[in-house]
Amino acid sequence: MNLLWLQAGGCGGCSMSLLCADTPDWHGQLRAADIELLWHPSLSLASGAEVLELLQRCADGRQPLDALCIEGALLRGPHGTGRFHVLAGTGVPMIDWVRRLAARARHVLAVGSCAAWGGVTAAGENPTDACGLQYEDERPGGLLGAEFRSASGLPVINIAGCPTHPNWVLDTLAALAADSLAAADLDALARPRFYADQLVHHGCTRNEYYEFKASAVKPSDLGCMMEHMGCKAPASPAPSRVSRSRATPLPRRPRWRASRSGCRPTCPRPGSSRWPRSPRAPRPSACATTPKPTTCCKNPPCGARGSNERTMNARP
């Protein structure tokens, strides 16, 4: 499957995210899925006349184009001319190139929220008249129109996210290369259902607090952050734990209990390798030998307090 990637009105964050995929050999993973990257503006070596010739061959149909990935919003201004974004060396607006290439491509993919709905680029008064490929915010339309269908019969595939997760992009491309992604595998907004049918809330490490209606009031509290802090996870499609499990999992916050001496388990004990001492200073005595300590030790490195001065929240 031949893949062409173009960047429009955006920050390039989705390409940066793509470099954070689970493999250090991103090109090798594409080749393993039988995907040939024709060109990427940030990751390919070709430039200048060589790239312009490639784009012209794709637009004319001389070069087969199986997947066209667009990153960034499409800038239609001023006054519908698209002259706010002209492809260097051609004098032709990017929106005209995208229309010509989309008409030839077997699949068209919007990578990131900007390409899908307009994103941050289309926010506010939208002076550049930015839009997504097939949506303006949540309204069908965009640059290509609500009725657009690629040569495969599919609408624009929206791999939305700001930035989008690299595994969502690679998994979608692999599914297209294997002809295993059909219209039934897309949700109502044309997002791949393998990630859009899940919510961030389902994989949240604070999910248990939501079930018991234990709400946090400030960030340091143990509790659900939806009611008082505005968390949108219950309405945000994304498999947070599924995606994170492929990389290093986030550490769970421990629930500390003070010991009889008032020290927490991580307080460096006298004689341990983490106890700060000068080579000329004598070894300090144990905390337990200090009469009625107000803290576990004098100027403890961890700043731990006594058992009657706990700073952690009680377990719900």
Task: Explain what the structure shows.
With 316 residues, the protein is α/β, with parallel strands linked by helices. It is 21% helix and 10% strand. The protein has helices at 13-18, 26-32, 49-60, 94-104, 113-117, 166-177, 193-196, 207-211, 240-244, and strands at 2-7, 36-39, 67-71, 74-75, 107-111, 130-131, 135-136, 139-140, 157-159. Strands 2-1-3-5-9 form a 5-stranded parallel sheet, sandwiched between helices. A two-stranded antiparallel ribbon has the order 4-6. Strands 7-8 form a two-stranded antiparallel sheet. It is globular. The chain starts with a strand and ends in a 72-residue tail after the last helix.
How would the blueprint of this fold be written?
Blueprint: E1 2-7, H1 13-18, H2 26-32, E2 36-39, H3 49-60, E3 67-71, E4 74-75, H4 94-104, E5 107-111, H5 113-117, E6 130-131, E7 135-136, E8 139-140, E9 157-159, H6 166-177, H7 193-196, H8 207-211, H9 240-244
Parallel strand pairs: 1-2, 1-3, 3-5, 5-9
Antiparallel strand pairs: 4-6, 7-8
Helix pairs in contact: 3-4
- Please tell me the overall pLDDT: 81
Largest sheet: 5 strands, parallel
N- to C-terminal distance: 53 Å
Tally of alpha and pi helices: 9
Descriptors:
single chain, 5-stranded parallel sheet, 9 helices, 10% strand
Q: Quick gist of this model?
A:
The protein has 316 residues and is α/β, with parallel strands linked by helices. The protein has helices at 13-18, 26-32, 49-60, 94-104, 113-117, 166-177, 193-196, 207-211, 240-244, and strands at 2-7, 36-39, 67-71, 74-75, 107-111, 130-131, 135-136, 139-140, 157-159.
